[in-house]
Structure formats: structure tokens, C-alpha cells
Amino acid sequence: MKLKNGLILALLFCFVSGLSAQNDSTLAPGYKRNVIKWNMTPFILWSSKDINISYERVLKPYRSFSVNAGYFELPVSGLFDSLFFSKSGYRSGYSISGDYRFYFKSRNRKSAPDGIYWGPYGSYHYTRFGSDVEVLRNDLINGSFQTDISFSIFSAGIELGYQFVIAKRLTIDLIFMGPSVSFYRGKILLNGDYDVNKDHEYYEAIRNILINRYPFLDDLIERGSVKGSGVSTNLGFGMRYLIQIGYRF
After folding, report:
1. 133, 144 contact by CB (below 8 A)
2. DSSP H stretches of helix in 90-215
3. What is the pLDDT of residue 39?
4. Which pLDDT value is given to residue 49?
5. Cβ-based burial of 147 (10 A; exposed 0-12, middle 13-18, buried ≥19)
6. Which of 153, 178, 187, 206 keeps 20 to 30 A from 198, CA to CA?
7. Residue range 196-219: average pLDDT?
8. Where are the strands (E) in 72-205, listed by range?
9. Cα→Cα distances 173→51, 116, 248, Å
10. pLDDT band at 232 (very low <50, low <70, confident <90, very high)
11. Which has the closest alpha carbon to 152: 234, 211, 69, 207?
């Protein structure tokens, strides 16, 4: 709790400091204040179904805010050691995030949304998925069970990025640093032919599969923190990296 309160105070301090440091002059009439973007990162890294759209609004010459929302899933299928995860099953999820940006007046030749910026941000990711899992022994099916896995991640931190404006309309937005504190909440449920109680080895096996496939979860899922008996929570640290392409209008 002390860490969470400290983070909130740090974000407020940075926010107030940025407000006082920025130029409060207004934008010229007809200035292109809006940018609609496609967040390519989850599409490239995790799933072609992960479509996220972002909107940035310029408030003043060196200040803006942006919001991001879309579909979010982390698919798991295929053979992992002796466990075969079927492609069939259900998957769902979503993500939302937002930030407040301060563009550096002394470093940028042009006003927002062009140039280097920093600012506080927050994000929330939720996903749930399940599938049939076959247990193989010597290439023979030795049993099966079903999974029901869900988790959510809330993160808050400070980001640093650079946005390029090309030909006055196209944009490339790169967030290349975003340290954060993240709060994790997750659940793994198994049922089927095996007596998969909460201490069964397959819980640990599935945890390892998730981390090997999505390494960013390693800091969030402590060993033994996810149990089939219900929901567990944990505190971890993360980073934010994004690539977005957009259209300014």
C-alpha cells in the first residue's frame, strides 16, 4: 500500500511540474489537433486478432492526451512437453489505456503532436481463455482435462516517447520507455479425467508455459501464486513499449 501511495504522489508531482513548465499559449485556428492511430504492438507480438485503436488530442502547443482501447487475447495452442492445447475453445479480452503528454518545448522544433514527450500513463488489460488439453505419453493420449484461465493487469507509470509527423498528416508514435508498477490478478481452473486439485503439477506446468510464451508475465506471476482454488493477486514491475501509426486531422 505504501508503494502504491508513493507512486500516486510521484505521478501527481510530475503532472503538476509539467503543467507549470509548459507554454500556455493557444493554437492557431485550423490547427490539426487530432490523431487517430493503430497500435501495432499487440497485433505483431501476440495475436492478429488484437486490434487496438488510439486517439490523441492536442490541448495546447506542447500538451496533449491520448486514449487507447481494443481487443486483447493471449492465445495458447500446440504441444508443450506432454501437454497438447487444442486450438478450439474460447478466448476473449480487452485493454484500455490513457496518458497525458508533455512535449518538450526546448527540444522540439514544432508543436505537438510532433517531437519527444513524456507523461504519466495508466493501462488495464483483461483476458480469459480456455481449451481442451490432452496428456500425451509416448505419443499416446493418456487422458485429458479442460482449462479456464483468466487474468488482469493494471499498470501505472511514466513514459518517454517520440512521435514523427510525416507530410503533415501521417504519424509514427514510438513509446520506447515506460517503467511502471503493475497489479496482477489471475486464476487457473482445471477439470477433467485427472484429479487436478489445487496442488497438482499441471498448475505449475501451465504457469511455465504462459511465461515461456509471454515473458513479460514473469515479473507478475510469482511461483505458486496462481492456484486453482480461486483468485490470487500480486505486485510486480513492468515496462511499456508501443509502436503506433496514425493519421492527423
Report:
1. yes
2. 201-213
3. 97
4. 93
5. buried
6. 153
7. 73
8. 78-80, 83-85, 90-103, 115-130, 132-137, 140-166, 170-177, 180-192
9. 16, 10, 12
10. low
11. 234
Render pLDDT for 21-58 as a digit per residue (tens, 0 to 9).
444 468 888 999 999 999 999 999 889 999 999 999 99
* Residues 196/214, Cβ–Cβ less than 8 Å: no
* 130, amino acid identity: G
**Rounded to the nearest 5°, which phi and psi values hold at 13?**
-65, -45
CATH architecture of structural domain 2-20+33-248: Beta Barrel (2.40)
Length of the chain counted residue by residue: 249
Q: Which residues of 9-18 are buried (b: 16+ CB within 10 A; e: fewer)?
A: eebeebeeeb
Amino acid identity of residue 120, one-letter, is P
Alpha carbon distances (Å) from 25 to 20, 78, 230: 13, 57, 53
Please count the other Cβ atoms lying within 10 Å of the Cβ belonging to residue 40: 16
Q: Which three cell numbers stand for residue 45?
A: 507480438
Q: What are the boundaries of each domain within the chain?
A: 2-20+33-248
Taking CA atoms, 69 is separated from 110, 155, 207, in Å, by: 28, 15, 27
pLDDT at 210 over 80: yes
Tell which residue, 74, 68, 103, has the closest CA to residue 89.
74
Contact yes or no for 119/173 (Cβ under 8 A) = no
Burial class of residue 38 in the structure, from the number of CB atoms within 10 Å of its CB (0-12 exposed, 13-18 middle, 19+ buried): middle
